[in-house]
């Protein structure tokens, strides 16, 4: 089995000689990858590098009102949502049929998890991408099924009960990654998925 590098790594730890050579020859670039900044219940602030997700903790639909820049967009009913950065677009977001987004586009993508769409309930039914000028506000309905949603950030679960208000936007912080010029994000996408 060959070792594979992730979306962030251009070297393996055992390639120390190659890392030193690339540094001495100044053969690398620094890429700035966007983050998502958010708050839960207007108090707990955080940044995420890949994705923020919210899911029902029971086998029932979760009801959420989505607002874009304080304007109601939709009432979502389903298993949950994945909100990803461009670099996170190749992870959980991709597995729920979201788009892969170039990390040179500071943005966040909102993807649905098993939305309920019928004659009574309707959602967009596809992922959408928001620019840094847009803010996403999620209000969790007061239904008893919504009291204990599961919240994850970059694969880490948050233990917050009675979540009712989530605000997300493209962060003002970036993650700087050292990379080789001949190993772009799209080279890695091709290597990992095609």
Structure description:
By secondary structure, the protein is mostly beta strands. The chain has one domain: Probable inorganic polyphosphate/atp-NAD kinase, domain 2 (Tumour Suppressor Smad4), CATH 2.60.200. Helices cover about 10% and strands about 40% of the residues. It has 3 helices and 11 strands; from the N terminus they run H-E-E-E-E-E-H-E-E-E-E-E-E-H. The protein has helices at about 15-25, 90-95, 185-194, and strands at about 30-40, 45-50, 50-55, 60-70, 70-85, 110-115, 130, 135-140, 150-155, 155-160, 165-180. Strands 1, 2, 3, 4, 5, 6, 7, 8, 9, 10 and 11 form an 11-stranded antiparallel sheet that branches. Strand 9 and strand 10 (about 155-160) form a beta hairpin. The two termini are about 15 Å apart. About 25% of the residues are buried. It comes from Listeria floridensis FSL S10-1187. This is Inorganic polyphosphate/ATP-NAD kinase. Its EC number is 2.7.1.23. Keywords: Cytoplasm, Kinase, Transferase. InterPro entries: ATP-NAD_kinase_PpnK-typ_C (IPR017437), NAD/diacylglycerol_kinase_sf (IPR016064).
